[in-house]
Specification:
Blueprint (H helix, E strand, L loop, with lengths): L3 E4 L1 H17 L3 H18 L13 E5 L5 E8 L2 E9 L8
Parallel strand pairs: 1-4
Antiparallel strand pairs: 2-3, 3-4
Helix pairs in contact: 1-2
Length: 96
């Protein structure tokens, strides 16, 4: 079964931020990042159940982006894989 991939506005913003960052580092590196994401998105649409849960409620899953310190955070609802974030693993969330 092939799943339909939906990317949220927040995930698009994450991708745009990362692209800009990598293009500033080296021209073309941002494109490399987007190509790696596209590869992961293709894998997600084919077999999203292959990836582990990352929360206690067993809703969210993630997959690492090859070559870059990012993970794609997603959830599955019926035949839809919803990408909710493209998170940099080097950044730490603000703690209360």
């Amino acid at each position: 079964m092939t799943y339909r991939l939906e990317i949220t506005a927040d995930a698009h913003a994450d991708m745009a931020d990362a692209y800009g960052y990598y293009e500033k580092k080296r021209i073309g590196l941002g494109e490399d990042f987007l190509n790696e994401l596209a590869g992961q998105f293709a894998k997600l649409s084919e077999a999203p159940l292959n990836y582990s849960y990352i929360d206690h409620s067993k809703t969210l899953r993630d997959v690492k982006v090859r070559r870059f310190p990012y993970v794609v955070v997603f959830l599955i609802s019926g035949d839809v894989v919803a990408v909710i974030a493209v998170h940099c693993t080097w950044r730490r969330p603000l703690l209360p």
